[in-house]
Amino acid sequence: MGWKAAEKLIRHWKVLRGDNVMIIRGKDKGETGIIKRVIRSQNRVIVEGKNLVKKHIKQGQGHEGGIFTVEAPLHASNVQVVDPVTGRPCKVGVKYLEDGTKVRVARGTGASGSIIPRPEILKIRTTPRPTVAGPKDTPMDLVLEKTYDAKTGKGMPEL
């Protein structure tokens, strides 16, 4: 990717994996679906069951060949998040609640201004966190050892 293309990458993404979106341009215009995958390096998203194309795959060693129907990526500007109250496409804004939590809200003409919930699928990690310490992990007794005392200044390196 050249530097010109990198300049045009979306910095602050409004759509997330698992969001309910409506396609606003293209052959599936007006249809809604769930975002299956977000490709940030290309500013594209894949919507479940939408923008289907035929792909010709040559037979190889270990897989069958033939013509398959696959979901092609859509540009992120061609989809909009669906307002959970009105069911119409809307822009996404950010708002901070009284307790300081950051939430997404529906914005734009005809939008309800309601909170757009974070998709549940984002709470599930694709790779689970390791429960057993590996060879490169620092042992817990070394982590919990107190090496600096703020009151006496003990443990400060001599400069």
From TrEMBL:
Does the keyword field hold Ribosomal protein?
A: yes
User: Which Gene Ontology molecular-function terms are recorded?
Assistant: RNA binding; structural constituent of ribosome
Q: Does the keyword Ribosomal protein apply?
A: yes
One GO biological-process annotation of the entry reads:
translation
Q: Which SUPFAM superfamilies match?
A: Translation proteins SH3-like domain
Matching PROSITE patterns, A to Z? RIBOSOMAL_L24
Q: Which UniProt keywords apply?
A: Ribonucleoprotein, Ribosomal protein
One annotated Gene Ontology cellular component of this protein: ribosome
Q: Where is the KOW domain?
A: 14-41
SMART domains in the cross-refs: KOW
Taxonomically, the superkingdom here is: Eukaryota
Q: Which family does it belong to?
A: Belongs to the universal ribosomal protein uL24 family.
Sorted alphabetically, which PANTHER family does this protein's record hold?
MITOCHONDRIAL RIBOSOMAL PROTEIN L24
**Listed name of the protein:** KOW domain-containing protein
| Species annotation | Rubus argutus
